[in-house]
Amino acid sequence: MANLPVTLAEIEQAARRIKGRVLETPFVLSAALTERCGVPVGLKLEHHQTTGSFKLRGATNAVLSLSPEARARGVVAASTGNHGRALAHAAKAEGAIATICMSRLVPENKVSEIRRLGANVRIIGKSQDEAQVEVDRLVAEDGLVMVPPFDHPAVVAGQGTLGLEIVAAMPDVATVLVPLSGGGLAAGVAAAVKGRSPRTRVIGLTMERGAAMKASLDAGHPVEVEEVESLADSLGGGIGLANEVTFQMCRALLDDVILLSEAEIAAGMRHAYREEREVVEGAGAVGIAALLSGRLGRLDGPVAVILSGRNVDMGQHLRVANGGDAA
Ligand SMILES: *Cc1c(COP(=O)(O)O)cnc(C)c1O
Description:
It is built from 14 helices and 10 strands. By secondary structure, the protein is α/β, with parallel strands linked by helices. Keywords: Lyase, Pyridoxal phosphate. This is Threonine dehydratase.
């Protein structure tokens, strides 16, 4: 683990920095999954985190890591989802202004939610790429500080604090199941878990549709993939062709990456709801989905599963809970 961009010491420092500003979420044993898998299965209920996802950890650590001058200039990101909510909340909590750029196609309910969290919302263009152009302009012309959703050392270190909490709750954990998209969560959690418990396996889970990190790991360098709609919408998007942090960390630290179908993700959400009594979004249910799918093969236990978020459209959740798939 030498020479990786984020170290265990930096994750421990992040944990001290964000303590009291984010929730230390519960870790509970799942009786249903333990029985089914034949090894203890614990669930890290990170979807109970303030703003509904783990992204608050990385955003809070990034904002707190800024100099007072940088913080005063304000932070900016292009995000319609969990990172936007997290950055809006984290900035407001520290008395800084967050500007979140989104395209005109973003539904009004998402826009108003981010406004409600205290951010300036800037609606521009008709794609996420055009929103990012506006972010770059605000950085270049107005001196705002960009906080990206995953490819940034302070963000990865913040997400890694989740790994420290898992090892503290389950010291003999043998396998950790982590949702994977841009890889900020997986990189941070793997660095923390393997730093404290070197023999624990860390497995990334993502959807078959548009798995950019998996395609990049297979290619040996960051590649672009076509974006397709998925139940796990928080796992969409690329890893960035100029990726600096998460690609090399995922390559060095992940033991495996498993892809899941839409039906399997739906089954994961359904299990979370019916058996665990938890409302979890598609991206947050991929760990349970992997356990139910049998795709993990022989499983080393105890197992820890991260439920990463709960920001799902409740109409969609109801359809899935009642036995429907994606659309
Ligand atoms: C962002 C997100 C992920 C993926 O995290 P990365 O750091 O991009 O890999 C997983 N689950 C939820 C709920 C998310 O919001």
